[in-house]
Amino acid sequence: MVKSWHSKLTSSLFVLPYFICFAAFLLFPILYGVYISLHNFELLSPEHDFVGFKHYATIFTPGTYLNSLFFNGLWNTIQFVIYSVPLLIVVGLGLAMLIQHLPSKLRGMFRTFYFLPYALSASVMSVIWLMIFDTNSGFLNSLLMKLNIPAIPWLTDQPWAWVSLITTTLWWTIGFNMIIFINALNQVPEDFYEAASLDGAHAWDKFIHITLPSIKPVMLFVMITSTIASFNVFAQPFLLTRGGPGDSTKVLLINVLDQAFIRKEIGSASAMAILMALLIMIISIVQFRLTYGNKGEES
Amino acid sequence: MSMKRIKTLLLVLLASGIAVVFLLPLVWMISTSFKNDFEALSGKMNFIPLKPTFDNYIKGFSGELMNVPILQWITNSLMVGIAGTAIVLLIASMAAFALARLKDLPLRKTLLSMFIASLMIPGVLTFLPMYMEFNALGLINTYAALILPYTAGAFGVFLLYQFFISFPKDIEEAARIDGANKWKLYTHIMLPSSVSIMVTLLIFTFMGIYNDFVWPLYATTSPEMRTITAGIAMMAQGSYTQSYGKLMAMTAAAAIPVVVIFILGQRSFVKAITQSAIK
């Protein structure tokens, strides 16, 4: 008895250090966030009155400042998701297939080229593209001038602002999806294609009837991770367009952090953050369910 | 045969064209970093600077003109990245070892599912309360604030758990018969055999911390505490957008450590990504 009690204790000690960090920097913040969202919490004021669900109610009351802050931000985020996710999937898969069809000696090199920007931080990436998109002296507009095309206000006019943000996002992160697709394509058995070739199938038929069904689970995974990542978009509009022109690229996360750190209203900002997190989790749960549903069918 | 050759040639040409698009911004960054401000803003598209200069690097690193402690920022980022990664490797491997191999661990299944479920929690949920937590502890603008939040991530536990759970049982039992206790088992059997997966986790974690942007931007308030990512972001929002040469020199300096690690450790990094996708 004593020995088993002792053994359980020593086993627990191995998990303890991580568990302390997990509790202090994940579990506690989640609960504390709920607490904050139920109070009038201002960054610099020591008094926090309990207000219940007032912040949540205000967010859902049309005409209030919080309402427009949340839903305008959400709409801008959703636009970014709609523009970026299909491209992140299609271009990612396209690059993976291109690399697959290259002579094997060249594959590693091109994979590294396309994946390299992923190693950069958000700020390094943004600064490079700020310079390229610069209206007056940027690389892109210099190029257009050479071709006698008038300069484009890449970051300060719509729809160019979205075009620029999506371009940089693709350049920066597409390598991640590409790597996952390359791995998935490698696992499609070669004889599937050979059998199809004997039946006289063309490249397009093979893609539709062999490639796509074989990589379906991975496709869903990429869809989920890309959607979540795009929902969390912050650095690109924060650094490149600064939310502009107007408020048109002020995505939800920018508005949450502005409410917390510029207007110093942590209470209502936390309510917005919790709603945003719930939305992301609902989307990922729905997509996970889809994944599991498909796995069930296959087995 | 020759049809196939032509097809391959066209594909290589296409791949090369795309590669130019991917690499051109990086080459332009390097090229601009060797130009003086006048040339950088001239709108000319020359990749070879007309009057190449090291001034941007020299002045940037010495803190002259720029008025930003760039070396301090890089040091901060390296310190925070190394310390955070070391802690993650230690506590995640211990926890993963216990969860996978020590069956008498109380609440083993509950803990495991809790840790895995936490991978689905979006960062926005913990960001503000974490800030308030560090603020209440008086730790905003300290190294503690820049390091500790990364230690709660469950990715390392998840990755190493998968490795330890598939570890052959005979080796473990042989060691136990030889009288090895749990700590010995962990340090002498498990750790030495997990070097490759640990390197994977190391690269993944270090790059994640070194490149993190939003948290250090808000968790630091004084210039000398900033990490390089937060520092570069502050510069980009300030008046430095009119000195692209200097900005690019500092940006290149910021990118070099992590690009080197990325290229050297690409295999491991790819492994971590694909593993997270398969499971």
TL;DR of this structure?
With 299 residues, chain A is mainly α. Chain A contains 13 helices and two strands, in the order αββαααααααααααα.
What are the main properties of this structure?
heterodimer; A: 299 residues; mainly alpha; MetI-like fold; two-stranded antiparallel ribbon; B: 279 residues; 2 domains
* Backbone structural class of chain A: mainly alpha
Under the CATH scheme, which class of the largest domain in chain B? Mainly Alpha
Q: What is the CATH superfamily label of the largest domain in chain B?
A: MetI-like
- Quaternary structure state of the chains depicted: heterodimer
Give the integer mean of the pLDDT values of chain A. Answer: 90
Going by helix content, strand content and strand pairing, the class of chain B is mainly alpha
What CATH calls the topology of chain A is: MetI-like fold
Q: Give Rg of chain B in angstroms.
A: 24 Å
Total domains of chain B? 2
What can be said about the biggest beta sheet of chain B?
none
The portion of residues forming beta strands of chain A comes to under 5%
Distance from first to last alpha carbon of chain A: 45 Å
* Rg of chain A, alpha carbons: 24 Å
Number of helices of chain B: 15
**Helix count from the secondary structure assignment of chain A:** 13
Fourth-level CATH superfamily of chain A: MetI-like
Describe the structure.
The complex is a heterodimer of chains A (299) and B (279). Chain A is mainly alpha-helical. Chain A has one domain (32-298): MetI-like (MetI-like fold, Orthogonal Bundle). Helix content of chain A is 75%, strand content 1%. Chain A contains 13 helices and 2 strands; from the N terminus they run H-E-E-H-H-H-H-H-H-H-H-H-H-H-H. Chain A has helices at 2-37, 54-59, 65-100, 104-115, 122-133, 139-146, 160-186, 190-198, 203-214, 216-231, 235-241, 252-261, 266-298, and strands at 39-40, 49-50. Chain A is globular. Chain A starts with a helix and ends with a helix. The relative contact order of chain A is 0.13. Mean pLDDT of chain A is 90; it is low at 295-299. Chain B has 2 domains: 2-62; 70-278, MetI-like fold. Chain B contains 15 helices and no strands. Chain B has helices at 2-33, 37-40, 55-62, 70-101, 108-118, 124-136, 143-147, 155-165, 169-177, 182-193, 195-211, 214-219, 228-237, 244-264, 266-278. In chain B, helix 4 (70-101) packs parallel to helix 8, helix 8 packs antiparallel against helix 11 and helix 11 (195-211) packs across helix 15. The relative contact order of chain B is 0.14. Classes of the chains: A mainly alpha (299), B mainly alpha (279). At the A-B interface, helix 1, helix 3, helix 4, helix 5 and helix 6 of A face helix 1, helix 4, helix 5, helix 6 and helix 11 of B.
